[in-house]
Each structure stands twice: as C-alpha cells, then as structure tokens.
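Researcher: I'd like a structural prediction for the single chain below. Treat it as a standalone chain; there are no partners to consider.
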Amino acid sequence: MGVFDKVLKNEESLMKNDAALDYEFLPKLLPYRENEQKYLATCIKPLFSQRSGRNLFIYGAPGIGKTAAAKHVLKDLEEETDEIEVLYINCWQKNTSYKVLLEMCDLLGYKFTQNKKTVELYKVVSSIVNKKSAVFVFDEIDKAEEFDFLYFVLEEIYRKAIFLITNYRSWLVELDERIKSRLIPEMLEFKQYNAEETKGILKERISYAFIDNIWENDAFELVAKKTAELKDIRSGLFLLKESGLLAEEKSSKKILVEHVKEAMHKLDEFTIKNSAELEADSKLIYQLIKENSGKKIGEIYKVYQSKGGISSYKTFQRRIENLEEGKFIQTKKQTGAGGNTTIVEKTLKDF
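Model: Treating it as a single chain, here is the predicted structure.
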C-alpha cells in the first residue's frame, strides 16, 4: 500500500450533492411526516369541489419538518391541478402587508406593481385569485409586523385554505380578535422526532449528499446521538456537512469520529435559528442569558432592567417562554429553601 492511498487527490470529493445537506432541500419523500401531510391535504380537499378549505395553525419546535411537510403537499397540489393557486410566503422575509402583497402578485405572475399602493395591490390579488381557489401558507407568521393581509384574505378571497406556521403555540393567543374570530383555525402540532426517526432522516440525507460508504459507522452514530439529544435536524445536517468538509480538508477518504468531534466544537457557533431573526427585546434577553447562563430568572430580569430593558416581568417571562419554544435556551425548575424558582441556560453546551 502506497503512502498516499488514503489521501484524497485534488479533484476528488466525498460529496456528490452538498445541497442535500441544506435544511431547505426537499427530498423526494419526507419520512415520518405522512400523517401530518395527509392532514394538510384533507384541509385543502374541499377546494377541489369549489368550496372553502379549512384553516390550520401549524406549530412545533424548529427543525422538525413543518415547512418541509407543507412544501411537499403544495408541490403535489401544483402537479395535481391548475385550478388552485398556491401562495407560500415567508413572513420573516415579507413582514409587512405591502411586502406580502408584492410577493403574492409575483407568485400570481402579475408584474405591473410599480407605484401601486397596498389598497390597489389588494384589488389585483383578489381579482386574480377569486377566478379560482387558493391555498395561502404564511410561514414564520410570528415574524410579521402587522396582519392586515390576513384580514384581507379572510374577508376578500372567496374559496381558500389558510395555513399559519410558527414555532410558538402561544403566538395564536395574542392574535387580534377580529382576525382570530374569522380564522377559527384547527390546530396541528408537529412533535419531536424520536431517536430512530432522527437516524433514518440523517441516513437518507447521507445517501443524497455523500458518495457511498465513506462514513465510518461510529462517526455516523455520534452525529445521530448528538442530533437526537439536541432534538433538531438542522444540528445534524450541520454536523454531517461540517464533518465532511473537515475530512476533505485533511485529505481523508473516510469520515471518522475525529472529524465529527471537531465539527461538534463548532456547534456553539451554529445558532439553530439565527439570533438576527429575533426582535430587538428578545435579542437583548437572549444575549443576557448567554452571558448569565445558569442564573435564576429573577436575577437575569434585574440585569435586563439595568441594561435598559423596559418590559414588565410578565412580558419578560413570556419572552423567556418563546425563546425556549424556539430552542434558543432551556429552563429548569429548582426547589430550595425559598421555594420554587426557574434557572435559565443557553441551549448549546461546550463539547
């Protein structure tokens, strides 16, 4: 055996399609979400009979397939019929009614939007959509700054199904009553993948992304174990990709445990949902928790006030709950001589 036999040549790569490790990548099949997809399809089904569908509030932690399941159903719908318009909009990117309406016009193929006001865009969208039926999917709905566009869809679109997707079940409680009373959504919770499901998803992505038989079994098992522990597929995809890149950098023909361990050291830099997506007050609280991880919630609130935070303690607690739902942080109850208290910690640990 030559000394260079285990070393990659310049033109060689361990990956055949690194795009398959992006979270937005849609595999041909979406395993372990068949029931959820069937439920989404059931809510859309009345539109095929020229009737309104059912509205749905979809919630669950990040990285568990909410968006992917919705996109799979929408893709199948577009292949099935031309009589139902499909409008998927991410409300983090399109966070005002004007931006949402512009996106709707673009999806509907209407290009003459320059200098048109929001009211005019409403008329354009309704005139096009009301000739057919429509499914509206508003992803990351909690990032929208106002919700006039929802009122418009509820009032002015004749035959529709509306899906709202968020990490936060609590978001619906704070929705304007005039919208909530018209929306009357059914609830669909996406639960965490278990350890075996997590392993199955990661194996599938490896088959798409890497050439065959380059993952050592122990290395894969370590990725699967850490992903199950963090309960977020995005973490696993990050580890798969980073481990592969590290192996390539070291000219290794196999991805080994040592590459995975090195990738794990970078997990703390990898925020499952980029903190830039948080609103200003939540971002301040998140930063203070990172700096004061392991302290009591009351102690962190005092630090928050000293840094200029103006929210009441009740609002502060709600922000903490939202950060935990979004898996930025974790909390645990502790009982002591002074009674019960809550300890707040950042989610990702050092490895």
